[in-house]
From TrEMBL:
It catalyses: ATP + protein L-histidine = ADP + protein N-phospho-L-histidine. Transmembrane segments: none annotated. Keywords: ATP-binding, Coiled coil, Kinase, Nucleotide-binding, Phosphoprotein, Transferase, Two-component regulatory system. The keyword Transcription does not apply. Its EC number is 2.7.13.3. It comes from Ktedonobacter racemifer DSM 44963. It comes from the Bacteria. CDD domains: HATPase, HisKA. This is histidine kinase.
Amino acid sequence: MVKYWRIRVAEQEVHGYAQELAATNQKLEQINQELERANHLKDYFMIRAAHELRTPLTTILGEVQLALRRLDKAKSTEKESLLWRRHFDKIEARTRVLQALVEDLIEFSSLHTGEKILQFGPCDFSKICGEVVENQRTYSGRQIELQLPPDPIIIQADGKRLTQVVINLVSNALHYSLEDTVISIGAHVEDASVLFQVHNEGPALSLEQQSHLFDPFYRTPYAETFFREGWGLGLTVSKEIVERHGGQIWVKSIEGEGTTFFVQIPLQVEQNIQAFSHQPARKMA
């Protein structure tokens, strides 16, 4: 009887623990649902705010450009024209900066929520690199070295989005390095993937900074001190694009040797990755 009684007590205890565990799991599930909804609300707010800002910015920019054209045709003194043009040029420049920030926010939100659908097809990665480097050389006047294999690098990808990644990485290298230093860029095929790298001789990044570089809205102390503009979204957007191609992006930075960003993307994207990249975004409840 004693043995039987102990077994019954143990069974009751186990049953009680099972009920407690089930209740705890139910609470955790409810909390997870609430957190997911809060996350969706945050994403929804960001993209709505960005879209609401885009319209007035476009209007302001259009009005400034119209005023500048009329100013060129107006019969006013040269001194007055120069004075007004200086004001309008400042307004246009600042509006373009703000417009670029809003576009970055929209791009990030669309990729993060899955609303941005990637268009996969054959594209020449060598050509993408060549065009971006040529444009950046013209725009910055900087020395940029580009090393590519003699044959085209054809990959299955969204060419427009990969161009965006290359622009982001090259622009970063130019932005955070001294003007008299050289930017080194290269791409080659390795193990059925394209390996792309961008090197600059700017200040080294600590391991702590490297661990946060691809986080949304993260900016290094150096960037915050010397470069006021920017959301800190360029690398985050690049990471989203690369990963949706089934690839990887990482950084290596050593004191005295500069900083190098690496991107590795498979030449042929797997069907399941293409399917994921074409999934519509989940709607909020």
